[in-house]
Amino acid sequence: MSTETEHLQEAHLSGAGTLRTEEMILNIGPQHPATHGVLRLVVTLDGERVVEGTPVVGYMHRGHEKLLEQRDFRQITNLLSRMDWLSGINNEIPASICVEKLMEIEVPRRATYLRVILAEINRILNHLMFTGSFGLELGATTPVMYAFRERELLQSAMEMATGGRMHFGFIRPGGLKEDIPKGFVDLALKGIRQLIKAIPDYENLLMGNEIFKQRTVGVGRLPARLALEYGVSGPILRASGVPYDIRKADPYLNYSEFDFDIPVGDTGDSFDRYFVLIQEMKESAKIVEQALTGLPAGSHIGVVPKRLTLPPGEVWSRAENPLGELGYYLVSDGDAKPYRMKVRTPSFSNISVVPHLLRGAYVPDMVAILGSMFFVVGDIDR
Amino acid sequence: MEQRGGSLKSSERVEPEAYSWLVSLKLGDLIGQTEIRYGQVWATVEPARLPEVVRILKEDPDLDCGYFTFLCAIDWQDKGFEVVVVLCSISRGVTVGLKVPLAPGVTSLPSLTGVFRGANWHEREAAEMFGITFENHPNLTKLYLAEDFVGHPMLKSFKLASRTYKPWPGAKDPGEAAGGGRG
């Protein structure tokens, strides 16, 4: 046995930390079951520890901002619902608000209520998806079955109202494409009540589960200051203890008329992010119930000219997307198309902070961290 | 957030008008005239002064503008580029927008990554899409595009390929259908 091997063996046995290790670079993705969609990760590993983990994005870049410059203000609705494909309605709303601000269009109260209802149902659909997928990523297959059971009724309600299950294209400048059909209110209420009954099950199933806690408590801790510097938003920011929700901080539509709370986390770890996600569904359910019971009569769309030509000007408008702050910076030069439309998506900023969370984490924790960062690749790449 | 010796309480919300006045007071002639649009404070900044302005906005305890919302560029063609930075003060409840016009032919300005690390990806995107250089950026490589991609797709002079290769028959864009159609 050579001296070097002896030395290594001794160091290994005594755990003296002098063991010479080599770093390994591991490529994960762009297609890998642990990454939703085509996010690619390049991680440098030292044994089981991550030295450096860098997300590589762009495998789904469709050039939305360029395409938006080629289409008029009604056509862009359908492009926008394809960015974060889990929350189409929430993507469409702030774009219409931009146009309404510049053109000074008044939105009828019924349309505003319906927008809130659809946006919050869409938020629940999104959160249910991540409730299920996060469990799946940690090896628990039951939560996704539960989540999809509750999703189905609400998804049917969305389909009944909009005709679509994913890309709705339902929000128009001035209001909505059409009014809701008969039976929608009952179906949506039924779905919401079923969800409220089921939420304690989700909580017990994972948050009370010892294995789940071991995998998530203290894992991927995101300090509030770092989160703010990166523009992290949504449930991820609130899990770090910052009670920042645009529905309260800079109210749009008529969110200020509803009674709901902003759940916040404490330490900003993966467990807290999941905790906030589940609690937010309860709050959204509260809003939908209030809005459905108080739904006023009236028109579903305001007075909108047949041809939308915006006056020159700029407007920055934002909304609380299920994944965080979504906003559009619309620059108009007086044409029927946007001169420039910058899309600020939540997942873009949220994922840019990931290298900080991966540094020093263990390989299996990497999946827990990514899974709890709740992102949609279409929302990062646009 | 803790109290850091400013004249306002750490979580005291202020009206955009008052905040705009504070911004003018603290930043003086580092910025141009401030303006309130849709309840947001907007100001024009010269490119060379941008990092300093952003640093003061972030670190001054009264302004407390510590949330980096986004950075983007606009191609005004022969009038040059414009870079827009939007920050948010969560404690004060105010959004601050900075407009940074670049003179025609100027394609570089200092990076904000020294103040907000989160500016990193936003600057990389603006760099590849518009051909703008952010000085002192730690890693100004392509973000979305392939390494060997030639050109800057968001420039107005860069035509959308699907609209140039084979001409579409009839009216396809809004405004082309004169007097009729669904325009």
Task: Note the run of SSEs of chain B as H and E.
Answer: HEEHEEEEHE
Query: How is the biggest beta sheet of chain A arranged?
Result: 3 strands, antiparallel
SS elements, strand count of chain B: 7
* Rg calc of chain A: 23 Å
CATH topology of chain A: Cytochrome-c3 Hydrogenase, chain B
- Straight-line N-to-C gap of chain A: 58 Å
**Total number of beta strands of chain A:** 8
Write up what this structure looks like.
The complex is a heterodimer of chains A (382) and B (183). Chain A is α+β, with helices and mostly antiparallel strands. Helices cover 48% and strands 12% of the residues of chain A. Chain A has a single domain (64-352), classed as Cytochrome-c3 Hydrogenase, chain B. Chain A has helices at residues 3-14, 64-68, 76-80, 88-103, 109-137, 142-162, 184-207, 210-216, 224-229, 234-239, 246-249, 270-293, 346-352, 354-358, 363-371, 377-381, and strands at residues 24-28, 40-46, 49-56, 171-172, 175-176, 313-321, 324-332, 340-344. In chain A, a hairpin with a 2-residue loop joins strand 4 and strand 5 (175-176). The radius of gyration of chain A is 23 Å and the shape is globular. Chain B is of the alpha/beta class. Chain B has 3 helices and 7 strands, in the order H-E-E-H-E-E-E-E-H-E. In chain B, the strands form 2 sheets. Chain B has a 5-stranded mixed sheet with strand order 1-2-5-4-3. In chain B, strands 6-7 form a two-stranded parallel sheet. The longest helix of chain B has 12 residues, at 16-27. Mean pLDDT of chain B is 84; it is low at 1-5 and 179-183. Classes of the chains: A alpha+beta (382), B alpha/beta (183). Chain A binds chain B through residues 57-58, 61, 63, 65-67, 70-72, 75, 101, 225, 228-232, 242, 244, 249-250, 307, 314-318, 325, 327, 329, 331, 335-337, 339-340, 342, 344, 348-349, 352-353, 381, and chain B through 37-40, 66-70, 72, 74-75, 84, 86, 90, 93, 95, 97, 116-118, 120-121, 129, 142-146, 153-154, 160, 163, 173-175, 183.
